[in-house]
Amino acid sequence: MLRGMFRLEAQVEFLLTCDRLKAVTRTTLLHSGERAENSAEHSWHLALMALTLGEYALPGTNLSRVVELLILHDLVEVHAGDVHFDQSEAGQEQQARREAEAAAWLFGQLPPDQRDIFGAAWQEFEARQSPEARFARALHTLLPMLLTWGPGAVGSAAHPELTFQRVQALKQPALAEFPELWELVRQTAARAVTEGIMPG
Amino acid sequence: MLRGMFRLEAQVEFLLTCDRLKAVTRTTLLHSGERAENSAEHSWHLALMALTLGEYALPGTNLSRVVELLILHDLVEVHAGDVHFDQSEAGQEQQARREAEAAAWLFGQLPPDQRDIFGAAWQEFEARQSPEARFARALHTLLPMLLTWGPGAVGSAAHPELTFQRVQALKQPALAEFPELWELVRQTAARAVTEGIMPG
Question: What is the pLDDT of residue B92?
């Protein structure tokens, strides 16, 4: 019993550390435009998105695993912070190093068996290889675009460099293998241009 | 293809409506005490909690289903708002009616097959009968307590009526069937009293 309670105490400490993800600010605004979203609510929205759009995944995709990956994918930001998706290659490498350190530190708060399970899920998402990680990544690439330029959006004046062509080039690698979602990207970008909230 | 895109458009509208959950404020503060948490980040934290504490569920519990229930459980607040767990019976009945209306409105934005699936998940959580709903409810009852009185908490001066005995009476129905979690409730409450952040 004592061993059990020590194990549970470690898990509780981990969960309370993870509470800090609610204070990590992202570059994406809420759909209302009222404030920047944080990484915790962003992770929830992605998990909901996986439950809602699961039919567009590749055949045989384990959607429960997609949800797991999305719940866990941003946890390392508790330590490492968020970065904009269009940053330089050097910045990305430095960020990857910081995130690996953060993952070792954070998941190391868990009992060893769970440290390994959570770490493997995070690495699976980062590797973008499994059907589950690829679908998770596609949703992750799609959602900020819907919040910023989807129906009812107020648009974003903060990124005038994101033209119709540039957005498509950035979104294509993660989304092109999902035909319905890729068509949605094209339609969303086209409408944002028509409505004047994205440069043509 | 057109039918497919109409379906996807309805799903996107639903997901953007759900973005409003990020603006629904709860009575629980972040563990840091810095601000009230919102229902979207709260739902994420509960889903993470289910992944972390799954070993304490009843044997045979489908943890993926627990995660689903927790991701969806607060969605009706987009329309109906949050309430404190210690409210009157009359207030609870009115809230239940408002939530049922909100569920019909919100899930009605989805294609009919998904409206029924999401609605059934929400009702399963509310009914507190299945092993999955009971574990989800236990976590839901436990987490605010950990945020408010767990290790490192700043405590809450807002609820002086929540004494050691009162908290245990309130938490007992949802948690007593999970012995490790119930022991955690008792230890957490006892320590909060010792540390002077909960009346004895």
Answer: 79
Give me the percent of chain B exceeding a pLDDT of 90: 70
> Which residues on A lie below 8 Å from B115 (Cβ)?
none
Give the ipTM. Answer: 0.93
Domain membership of residue B80 (yes or no) is yes
Which tokens belong to A110? 């868990």
Tell me, yes or no, whether B138 lies in a domain. yes
Whether B181 is covered by a domain: the verdict is: yes
pLDDT tens profile A162-171: 788 888 899 9
Q: Please name the helix (run of DSSP H) or strand (run of DSSP E) that holds residue A29, with its range, or none.
A: strand A25-29
CATH (domain of A162):
1.10.3210.10
Please say whether the beta carbons of A71 and A50 come within 8 A.
Answer: no
Question: Are A13 and B151 a contacting pair at CB < 8 A?
Answer: yes
**Domain hosting residue B136, numbered range:** 3-194
Please tell me the total count of domains within chain B: 1
d(CA B153, nearest CA chain A) in Å:
9
Residues of B in contact with A12 (CB under 8 A): 146, 150-151, 184
Task: Supply the pTM of this predicted model.
Answer: 0.93
Interchain pair B67, A71: CB under 8 A: yes
Helices B63-72 and B131-149, axial angle in degrees (round to 10): 60
**DSSP 3-state of B38:** strand
- Mutation target among A2, A20, A22, A178 for the B interface, most CBs of B within 10 A: A22
Structural domain includes residue A199: no
A132-165 pLDDT, tens digit each: 999 999 999 999 999 998 988 876 655 677 788 8
